[in-house]
Amino acid sequence: MKRIFNTLSLLCLCLAYAPAVQADSRVMSIFHFDVNKGDATLIVSATGRAVLIDAGDDGRGLNPIIEFMNRAKREGFIKSLDYTIATHYDSDHIGGMDEVLLSKWKPRLGALDRGDQFLPPFDRNYIRRSCRGIHLSAAQSLVSWGTAPEVSCKPGKRRASCALVRYMLSAKKTRKRATLKPGAVVRLDRGVTMQVLVANGVDLKGNTAKIHFPGRRPDCAANDLGVALLVKAGKFRYLAGGDLTGDARKKVAEVEGLIRDDVGKLDVYHINHHGAETSSDARFMRAIAPTVAIASNGKSFGHPRRTVVEKRILKANSKTVVYATNLNNDNKAWSGDKKTIADLDFKGYDGMIEVAVYRRTFKVYMWRNGKRIDNGRSFRIRR
Q: Cα separation of 317 and 234, whole Å?
């Protein structure tokens, strides 16, 4: 009897990950973690090979990311973490990455990022005072710090964060760190690829966005320099662009303008910069007109902005279905339909949005407390 109970329990756990049986076989699944503030996305191929794109803020590498991957590996859904990708160096995207890189989940093939160009300055006093466990000399000699022009990185306004230093140290320790260049193609599995559309403000054709200019935000152009990836699986198209910028009226670079012709129409748009007004420019949205848009958001900042969702995303395609990892009650934020919001109370990190991709269709599921909470909504792949 005990053996029967254990068998049934394992079967139930496996069904939490297994897509509904259908004639259209699964190609991959994309999990958008609830990290509250920040972004973290796990792509898993049909054979269990995975890539982690960003890892949320400090602590989120352990929970929910590693907790999820441990459980999924026990249940046979994930076999290996092949790559990690840091889209850019903001703490809410790389704060949890060192936790992954220093764990048993360190990537098998590569710890990928935009390289050492245009880095913020290294403040020894700040690192000594605020960043526990970092060896100052080793960290300072790691790369050439402070390469961002002062017009984009005013002294005293931005500096190398604890998260960035820890990321650099842990990525080096893996001996797998490599720089992503525009046009590079990362092959996760048969038929599942990720093409770099832009990195450090340079696109596939060598065109360059005007990143460093007088009057811009004194933020070291951290978002403008990020990596954007076009994920392809058969005819399915998905964009992961981190905090990529697009609206020059907000004193940022028009990087989205460089790639809008390369992206084309999308099945799923992982909304740039969580739905901030600096991104998802109206022209960009008209060019990509996604079937589904997903915002990785949290309690802070009021993302996604209501104006971005209603006046840009939905204006470009009124049929776009918008999802968000968290409910945000800020009066400037899009409140949306609670049926498409994973976490409604900010307690823990239990909300997640899954996109299960098949050959001809894809399905979007809501997760809460480690399991799916709905039967998913099905969409046809556009091409």
A: 23
Which of these ranges, 166-175, 272-281, 295-304, has the smallest mean pLDDT? 295-304
Residue 357 to residues 232, 293, 318, Cα–Cα distance (Å): 10, 15, 23
Phi and psi torsions of 335, nearest 5°: -90, -30
Does the structure show a pLDDT above 70 at 241?
yes
Structure token digits, residue 6? 């254990």
Token pair listed for 274: 């969580």
CA distances 30 to 26, 88, 176, Å, are 11, 20, 23
Q: Is the peptide bond before 304 cis (omega within 30 degrees of 0)?
A: yes
Q: Distance of CA 337 to CAs 98, 242, 344, 375, Å?
A: 35, 24, 11, 17
> How far, in Å, CA of 11 to CA of 77, rounded?
12
pLDDT at residue number 171: 98
Q: Report in angstroms the alpha-carbon separations of 310 from 125, 240, 316.
A: 45, 21, 9
What would the pLDDT profile of 105-159 be if each residue is shown by its tens digit? 999 999 999 999 999 999 999 999 999 999 999 999 999 999 999 999 887 788 9
Cβ pair 238, 263 in contact under 8 A: no
**Rounded distance, CA 325 to CA 40, Å?**
11
pLDDT at 345: 85
